[in-house]
Amino acid sequence: NDRLRKTKVVASLGPASWSEEMIPKMILAGTDIFRLNCSHRRGGDFERVYPLIRKYAKELGKDVECLGDLQGPKFRVGELAADPVPLVNGEVLEFGISKDDNDNIRPGRITMKPTLEQNALVRGCSVGTALLIEDGLMEVKVVEKLSETELKVQVTRGGKLKARKGVNVPDIEIDCAALTAKDIEDAEYLLQLEPPCEYICVSFAQKAQDLQELIDIMDRLKVPQEKRPKICPKIEK
């Protein structure tokens, strides 16, 4: 009996599962909440899928909720100059913001593209800061800060570095807004759905102000209190 379960089953919808055939099957299988990943919001897919969720939940007599997951700022290494670069334990190399389109990852140097968020990440690092790459599979530690955009790091956990892998810095607060321009656009869309979605997730939330940014959008759009989604800060570090 689904009503006796205290744990909610959250199912992420994507191209493999958001068809008219699959959505009712997922509801009958026990889905309580459908997650709409705003990283993949494009081409009218959400506009097509959201009414289907509400339609089949009503037809099947199930209490199904929807969660809009904002993408948040992205922190990734850049492109490769050639083949994947081996990172060897103990090796000291450069880690910095790309100076131009040709300043790509190569032996002895790791680069990130010059976005506001990634500039803030490098700027916030100091000697001893650990940077985790590809979900922590690799790790480098700052041994010298050369400038606001350039570091020297030592490899503490090696591996083979490929392009566009994620970077996390658990020990610092990155001085950037939690909501990007895309997040603001996606939040405005989610907040104007009818019926409203029940939850909105804020990615990489670090402080109370990050959640206030979403509340400010609700205020600007004059969303009534009874229609405001619950805000879920995601713990991602």
Automatic annotation (TrEMBL):
Root EC class: transferase
Coiled-coil residues: none
GO molecular function, one term: potassium ion binding
Keywords: ATP-binding, Glycolysis, Kinase, Magnesium, Metal-binding, Nucleotide-binding, Pyruvate, Transferase
Cofactor: K(+)
Catalytic reactions of this protein: pyruvate + ATP = phosphoenolpyruvate + ADP + H(+)
Entry EC number(s): 2.7.1.40
Residue ranges of every copy of the Pyruvate kinase barrel domain listed in the record: 5-237
Pathway stated in the Swiss-Prot or TrEMBL entry: Carbohydrate degradation; glycolysis; pyruvate from D-glyceraldehyde 3-phosphate: step 5/5
Family the UniProt entry places it in: Belongs to the pyruvate kinase family.
Protein name: Pyruvate kinase
Classification lineage: Eukaryota, Sar, Alveolata, Dinophyceae, Gonyaulacales
